[in-house]
Amino acid sequence: MTAPIGASALTVSEIFLSLQGESTRVGLPTVFVRLTGCPLRCSWCDTVYAFEGGRKMTLPEVLAEVAGYGVRHVCVTGGEPLAQRGCRQLLHELADAGHSVSLETSGALDIAGVDQRVSRIVDLKAPGSGECERNRWQNLEHLTADDEIKIVVRDRVDYDWARRQIAERRLAAICTVLLSPVAGELAPATLAAWIVEDRLPVRFQLQLHKILWGNARSR
């Protein structure tokens, strides 16, 4: 029988085991907890299915399902996971359970109060996303060397914007900065060439999961 839904409940789009496809943890077997809902509508979003639906689960139910995979690394993602009230408690309890936890967040919501044991992967939305005005720049004050900044680049305009932010806000001095191309819209080799030409202090990345499995929802 499913436990009653209370204040600590979450709406979960899916929980699955795969390889981490992005960030400095790329390639590691990881359990993904994808929460439902997102206040943003990025033009290149590849998880539109997570905007709605899902199943109601209590924190103990989520923790038990994650533990059943027997994997140390866990990534809480979305949608926008921080849009759900119970997300911070979930992150805390996953860390308490001994998991190495990362959080993938849009950067539009406040990351203050997220458990310091959690590696926060914070997006900065470039103009091509259509959500550039939603960037919460105050979040940069809370980042440490254990966190990461991700910028998805659609075209040269986005790249030049990213380059300015990296220089003016000294992002590479805060934490690792990841640049990746919008799949199917910007050739990876083009972005790589720009980074090399400018000696940009970032890590180029591709979405490993898409290279391996295309647009399949989970593996």
UniProtKB/TrEMBL annotation:
UniProtKB keywords: 4Fe-4S, Iron, Iron-sulfur, Lyase, Magnesium, Metal-binding, Queuosine biosynthesis, S-adenosyl-L-methionine
Q: Locate the residues binding substrate.
A: L19, Q20, G21, R34, T77
The portions of this protein that span the membrane are none
**The organism's taxonomic lineage, starting at the top:** Bacteria, Pseudomonadati, Pseudomonadota, Betaproteobacteria, Candidatus Accumulibacter
Q: Which GO terms describe its biological process?
A: tRNA queuosine(34) biosynthetic process
Taxonomic superkingdom: Bacteria
Q: Cofactors per UniProt?
A: S-adenosyl-L-methionine; Mg(2+); [4Fe-4S] cluster
Q: Does the keyword 4Fe-4S apply?
A: yes
Name of the coding gene: queE
Root EC class: lyase
Subunit details: Homodimer.
User: What does the UniProt cofactor note say?
Assistant: Binds 1 S-adenosyl-L-methionine per subunit. Binds 1 [4Fe-4S] cluster. The cluster is coordinated with 3 cysteines and an exchangeable S-adenosyl-L-methionine.
The molecule here is called 7-carboxy-7-deazaguanine synthase
